[in-house]
Structure formats: structure tokens, C-alpha cells
């Protein structure tokens, strides 16, 4: 198998240093779907790099049908944004915008585009649409008024991702169990990864890579279906949340690389049959994914364990207020309002009023 390494420039620092990232291309036989996998767009979420490492080691022993592009260390500026012991790296430090909300929302009128191209056969239509999406990213980068630092990075990554049929964006939560963001049109994908909890997301754009990759294709499929043509959604895009930030665990990374391999096997990217791990898997609709905010400030004991189901009324958080000792309000137990599974919690043990303490899946169902 041929493996090629490229350095792709995604920005420049003030003193002139280039910001670049490594892209590894594993060349397949051209008979299967192509794949794009990136990791570490949020600077502290490093485990995806270990998963890419383990996946590349595994891939050396398989027969590749489709091409796989792997982009670890996908945000060099965010990764290097250290403060004391910690990596900040979630927000562009200049604009404050979340690095994973900077992707291009295609303004293309897809109904009009379809009407102008509906005479094409399916393969030509798909190729023309792909070319259009990549060209829109290139136009954005060439804009005479310029783009922000974050948009430089995001749009450069997006232009690469649009070249593939399958896009996997590897993240982690702050303190988190593993969970998957999966578009509703591809529910069966959730059965393959080594991930117990899946959020099913609708066809709407909020700025993230997975949505940037699948929303135009989902919309194209809907427009075609409205004209009686079963094109199907030709691009899959999923976000894998691989545990907690600031953590590298190579054994766990191998487990997740094997899950990705099982999905790639199911999709015909590799010739060999790789079965998913037998495990219980659960789902939740995005509308039932609830954020629990601190009703007041304080020091936090996170009692709810991520990945462990809880009942309404169970204590989720103990909130300590040393300025209120002796008033009866020095210790408050905050209860979970509804049955659910805490998926992640805030990383710091001291919080302002209104801090998002937990994200909780409610109305969880077995897959
Ligand atoms: Zn992230």
C-alpha cells in the first residue's frame, strides 16, 4: 500500500512562522468510498491523535479499496495555546469563536442548482455537486476582504473533507464518556463504533465540521427525492467524542481504532470483514440532550458519573459556598430533574452562576 505524507499550510503566526499540519494519505484501489479523518481541532482534545496513530498501524495490514486521508493535529494554533498546566484551545483567542463553529455554511440554492443539473446521471451529478462545494470553499479563502484566522483553518480543512465520501471528526468532551454524533439518516452507523451512546442529529447547520460535510448532501437528497429521484445521501459525516480532554490512552485508542475499522469494513472501504465490538449501545435525539446549568456559583463536587444512568431526583452535584457558612446554604445538593444519563461535565471544580455543569441524555433508548 502506498502512504504519502503532505504538509498543508493553514495559517501564519505574527512573526512569520507557518502553521501547517501533516496529512497522511493511504491509497486504496479506487473501488471503495473515500474517507477523511481529522483530530484535535479543539486543542486539549488530544486522544483522537492516538486513535489515528493506532488506525494507521492497523491499516498497514488490510486491503484498502478506498483512499483514506488522515489529519491529526488539525489545529496547530489551538494545540499550542497553553496556559499554565492546561491547553485552552477551544476558542480562537482573537475572536472568541469556537474553532468547531467556523466552517462554511454553503449559501448555494440547492433547489436551483438541482434544477440546472437534473439532466446529469447520478455519478455526474454527485461529481458536479462535490466540485461546487470545494469551489465555494476556495472562493471563501480567496475573498478580497479576507477571512478570520479561524475561518482560514476551518475552510482549509473543509475543502479537504469535501473530497471524501466519509468524514470523521475526532473530538473529546471535557470530562466525558464516549459518545457519537450521528445524522438521523444514517442510524445504522451507530452499531459499528466502540461507542455506547449516540446522539442523532437533524439536517441543520450550526457551524460544526460534521454538519458542514453532510447538510448540503442531505438537502440535495431531499430536493432530488421531491423530484422523484432516489439519490440517497452520498456523504456520511460523524463526530466521535472519545472520552475526556487532556488524556492519551493508547490501549483505549486501539479499541476506538478497531471500532472505526469495523465501520470502514461495513462501508466497503477495506476488503476484509471486521466486526464491531459486542456491546450495549444507546441512542438519544438531539432535542432530548439537555444542558444542566449552575443555578448559583460555587465549588463543585461532580457526583453524577458520566455514562451511568440516573433517576430523577438523584444528586448530580454538591455545590459548596464557604462565604455562606452557618446560613444553611453553605452546601446545596443539586438534583437531576429527569431520568437520564450524564454524558459529560465541566472540567473545573469552581464555577460561575450559569455555567453549563453537565450535559445529560434524556429519553434514552436501546439501539
Ligand atoms: Zn471538541
Automatic annotation (TrEMBL):
Its cofactor is Zn(2+). Coiled coil: none annotated. The keyword Nucleotidyltransferase does not apply. It comes from the Bacteria. It holds the Pfam family AstE_AspA_cat. Keywords: Hydrolase, Metal-binding, Zinc. Transmembrane segments: none annotated. The keyword Zinc applies. Residues 31-266 form the Succinylglutamate desuccinylase/Aspartoacylase catalytic domain. InterPro entries: AstE_AspA_cat, N-alpha-Ac-DABA_deacetylase. This is Succinylglutamate desuccinylase/aspartoacylase family protein. It comes from Shewanella jiangmenensis.
